Amino acid sequence: MDWADLLGRYGDPAKWLVLRIACRYTGMTLAELGEAAGGMDYAAVGMALRRLDRKLPDAPELRRLEARITHHASCIVHRAEELFMARERTLDDIAEQDRILQRLRLQPPSAAP
């Protein structure tokens, strides 16, 4: 099932779980979430998320699904952070190498005997 299929399923709380988790991990506003969900109004997104919050305590299957999606999302975020940090370290290493090469170029050649 892809995102378009999920959005088309009336009453399916899975799409609201995805939007709830997207809000948590991305910091997107309700308006941005609504746009990502096919152009929904921010008020409709907010109302749906409030309904989901009320439904979750009495829906163990939804809580399990949320836990699974959250786990996968946190793994993705963690891996992305690792890759970002590795990239930053690589950029720092390149910058340090450039600084060393620049210093070597600025030093006068040693006197030949």
Describe, in plain words, how this protein is organized in 3D.
It is a single chain. The protein is mostly helical and 113 residues long. It has a single domain, classed as Chromosomal Replication Initiator Protein Dnaa, Chain: A, CATH 1.10.1750. The chain is built from five helices and no strands. The longest helix has 47 residues, at 60-106. The chain is elongated. The chain starts with a helix and ends in a 7-residue tail after the last helix. The model has no long low-confidence stretch (mean pLDDT 82).
Number of E-state strands: 0
Number of helices: 5
What's the story with the biggest beta sheet? Answer: none
Our estimate of the beta-strand percent is: under 5%
Helix content range: over 70%
Average per-residue pLDDT, rounded, comes to 82
Distance between the termini: 76 Å
Low-pLDDT residue spans: none
The name CATH uses for the topology is: Chromosomal Replication Initiator Protein Dnaa, Chain: A
Shape annotation? elongated
* CATH-level-2 architecture: Orthogonal Bundle
Task: Return the CATH class.
Answer: Mainly Alpha
Tell me the Rg in angstroms.
25 Å
Question: Strand pairing plus helix content: what structural class?
Answer: mainly alpha
String of helices and strands: HHHHH
Number of domains: 1
